[in-house]
Amino acid sequence: MADLVKSFDPVGGEVFGGRYLTWMRSAATNYTQRCSAWTPSPSLVCALRDLAMFETWRRKGYSRPSDKDCIRHTRKRRIRSHRISRLKGNILRKQPLEDSKSMDVGQRRCWFMILEEAHCTPQQAAAAHLFAHAVTLQPPMASACDRLRDLKAFDDTKAGVKGLIDAGITTVPAIFRHPPDTLARAHDEDRFAIPVIDLAGVTTAPSRRAELVAEVKAAAETVGFFQVVNHGVPGPVMSEMLAALRSFNEEPAEARRPYYSRDGQSRVRYHSNFDLFRSPAANWRDTLYLDMAPTGPSPGEIPAACRGIAVEFTREVQRLGGTLFELLSEAMGLNRGFLEQHEAGCLEGLSVVGHYYPASPQPHLTMGTSRHTDPSFLTVLLQDSIGGLQVLHRQRNDEQPVWVDVPAEPGAFTINVGDFLQLLSNDRFRSVEHRVLSKSVGPRVSVACFFRPHGAAAAASVCAPILVGDGAASPPRYRSVTVEELIVHYRDKALDGTSMLDHYRI
User: Fold this and answer.
1) Which keywords does this Swiss-Prot/TrEMBL entry list (predicted)?
2) Is the dihedral of CA 125, 129, 132, 134 positive or negative?
């Protein structure tokens, strides 16, 4: 296969020549030696060339071809879309490498064609995928085999990104380096600002409540994000929660290691990147998960630094969540208790997730959190003064979306609609993509509170579009699904910059 790479220069060295071509040759040789020795068939050669050409189009900034375009231009192959869909399930079930899930739609489509045309064995499929993956990566990102080794070595330290900082690193390790096209930091501060809603009078002034319902409705339908002030959560409780999380992460690694776990069923777990072994690139952050409701951990299970404040903070956020769900219910034309009483269990579970973002020596090479949407009904976020959160916002349908900063307003919570609520609202409320930039200053500390059931309650909680109230006239846009299915799908796909909801659209 290394020799095959010599013909992979469809634009005369402009993309695949020089250092890049040398790197690809080396990668292809290493991959095939590690997987299997085999000779690709002529049809596989054509398919691989097509993949290279497809990536050339993408890198030169041309618009991505549609399904029909891709099929028409792929050496005139006549592969029907339903044939590709049928192959998709079969291939992913037999796929030997987890990181196939990180490939984007275009890369997957070309890879499906490779496997169909070549009738590959599993070993050949592994080599084909590894090579296809190499074509799409940018040096000096790690090769697949070296990357897996480095990921395991990092995870085995059980010290997280903070452990790297304590070790005195001066460059970002390869496993944390993101593709350049995901790191663009252009944003629009002048034309748009995230709405700030003052909740004063929400329970005492009926006329003010009607105004608040209208404000929440407008924000949920257009932006998907808003900030709330005068929410009733005491300032000392907010600052103490941030301080407790910072204190835990700055304890010696030996004190943090007992909590390090990738067991998703554990009510208390600490680690770096839940999708570490599935994502294209790791994020520059460590996380402490506390599943606090409906049944929280015992006090002895919670790290000592957070033990005194976690329960009080949870109680205050649950109260605020109840108020917000009432306003959202009324915004949908329903009675104020509708969402709280709904079978989906909007208020039945609460996960308090503390993120710790150390200062990065090379923030332009990595991300604090990749672009994603939230697997929740509603997310209530508390962030410190450093900032870095950005929302992808489109002012009008005919405009390109831009990244908008969400400033760290003193004393405010940032609220965003989650995927589950977008499904319930039948697309009336928007769950929008957001991300966190890596910075040279820090650490940044934030606490994201996800309203969603977990455990046995998630299996029993059913999400389906609400077709009463203002949504009575609209046909359902999603099929019925349990919260457990949604969460499993979210974890499987990792933070790949796509919405989980597309998988459930009718």
Assistant:
1) Iron, Metal-binding, Oxidoreductase
2) negative
What are the two backbone dihedrals, phi and then psi, of residue 382, each rounded to the nearest 5 degrees?
Answer: -110, 125
Residue with tokens 């634009």: 11
Contact indicator for 453, 348 with CB cutoff of 8 Å: yes
Rounded Cα distance, 272 and 366, in Å: 14
Tens digit of each residue's pLDDT (9 = 90 or more) over 127-142: 444 444 444 433 334 4
Write the pLDDT tens digit of every residue in 62-118.
443 343 333 333 333 333 344 434 434 443 443 333 334 444 444 444 444 444 444
Q: CB-based burial of residue 268 (10 Å sphere; 0-12 exposed, 13-18 middle, 19+ buried)?
A: buried
Q: What is the β-pairing status of strands 286-293 and 268-271?
A: antiparallel
In angstroms, rounded to a whole number, what is the distance separating the alpha carbons of residues 174 and 115?
A: 30
In the chain, the domains with their CATH numbers are 4-139 (no CATH), 186-504 (2.60.120.330)
Bridge partners, residue 447, by sequence = 354, 382
- What is the DSSP code string of 237-273? HHHHHHHHHHHHHTS-HHHHGGGB---TT-SEEEES-
Record the tokens describing residue 51, joined without a space.
Answer: 């993949």
Q: Token digits for 147?
A: 């990357």
3-state SS string over 339-372? HHHCCCCCCCCEEEEEEEECCCCCHHHCEEEEEE
Say what the pLDDT of residue 141 is.
Answer: 42
- Look up residue 203 and give its DSSP letter: T
Cα separation, 135 vs 141, in Å, equals 12
Nearest to 118 by CA among 105, 131, 103, 136: 131
pLDDT in tens, 161-202: 999 999 999 999 999 999 887 887 666 555 678 999 999 988
From residue 246, give the alpha-carbon distance in Å to each of 287, 312, 416, 444. Answer: 11, 17, 24, 9
